[in-house]
Design goal:
The chain is α/β, with parallel strands linked by helices. The chain folds into two domains: 156 residues, P-loop containing nucleotide triphosphate hydrolases (Rossmann fold, 3-Layer(aba) Sandwich), CATH 3.40.50; 120 residues, no CATH class. Helix content is 53%, strand content 8%. The chain has 16 helices and five strands. Helix 4 links the parallel strand 2 and strand 3. The radius of gyration is 24 Å and the shape is elongated.
């Protein structure tokens, strides 16, 4: 299946390979579930392809290295994951030690370190030592959703490439290509540009329905329901992070749907900012979740629209109300 999304980044990277100007150490950053690893694999395949120059983006697909790559048995590609199934520091040392050997095919070798921001400090120092002494024709692609977790000494040695969230249309294209159901495709606008978030939505359908119901009630100005939802959600610590994420993505979709209606858009934009602040206040500052959620829902009422349109700062964001 052809890779969908991030065309500017992928084209620029392919051109650097064709011009033999690609740096030896790269870091791909951006939200989780947006295709960073797939883009890294596409780049690695082009680097290892042995078609006549210039090698096409993603490799020619016909040479022996491309065939081995597709089967997952190319001897000069090393892929390590530090996420859920975390590789150990000893595994990392063994993998990097192999780089002292001559390439098995051609001259290039590629090492992809996925979710490298989850690595231990000891492991980070092992990587740093390798980056400080780069070998010719050896390429490193580090993949991190939260690069700030990595030491600055590693970041400074890598050229940074940012991969933003996918559009709803791109997510729908990916889902259709995968043969997803109509129900799954219909959830694409709420995925917040991330396929991993979409996978979570499919398992949280009842929670999503509840969040949408709360937003619609809040839009109608039903303060009693707002308080009931706020109390129920505020008492559910285990589902707090997921529900706040659904609230944020649902409000963003409301804003997108009503972007051409100035009065409605003003309400949804204000509510979305409050939802973003709510995640920080509740998850980082440990503010009273019931009070914060109630404020977010109250800000969704349609009767605020005319005033917000005329004076966008007529109502202070909840972050100012609660910690200002």
């Amino acid at each position: 299946m052809a890779l969908i999304g991030h065309s500017p980044q992928r084209t620029a990277l392919a051109n650097l390979v064709q011009e033999d100007r690609l740096p030896g150490s790269l870091i791909f950053t951006g939200p989780a579930g947006t295709g960073k690893k797939l883009a890294a694999l596409e780049l690695a395949k082009q680097l290892l392809c042995q078609s006549p120059s210039p090698c096409p983006q993603g490799g020619c697909g016909g040479c022996r290295p491309c065939s081995l790559f597709e089967s997952g048995t190319h001897p000069d590609l090393q892929l390590m994951d530090f996420g859920v199934e975390s590789a150990s520091t000893d595994d990392l040392r063994h993998t990097l030690d192999r780089l002292s050997l001559k390439a098995f095919m051609g001259t290039r070798r590629v090492t992809i370190l996925n979710d490298v921001d989850m690595i231990s400090l000891v492991g980070a120092n092992v990587i740093l030592k390798t980056l400080e002494e780069p070998r010719p024709d050896t390429y490193f692609i580090l993949i991190a959703s939260t690069p700030s977790r990595l030491p600055q000494t590693i970041l400074s040695r890598c050229q940074k490439w940012f991969f933003d969230r996918l559009s709803s249309q791109e997510i729908q294209e990916i889902l259709k290509a995968r043969g997803a159901s109509e129900e799954e495709i219909a959830l694409a606008p709420l995925a917040d540009g991330s396929l991993s978030a979409l996978e979570g939505l499919s398992t949280q359908q009842s929670m999503l329905d509840e969040v949408l119901g709360a937003i619609n009630a809040a839009w109608r100005g039903e303060a009693t329901k707002n308080m009931r939802y706020a109390q129920e959600w505020g008492g559910d610590k285990s589902g707090m992070r997921a529900r706040l994420a659904l609230l944020r993505t649902s409000l963003r979709q409301k804003l997108f749907e009503h972007s051409s209606q100035a009065t409605s858009a003003a309400v949804w934009a204000h509510a979305l900012q409050n939802a973003l602040d709510a995640e920080y206040l509740i998850l980082e500052r440990h503010a009273n979740p019931t009070a914060v959620i109630f404020n977010v829902l109250q800000s969704c009422a349609q009767h605020h629209g005319a005033r917000l349109q005329k004076t966008p700062h007529a109502e202070s964001p909840i972050i100012d109300q609660l910690i200002g």
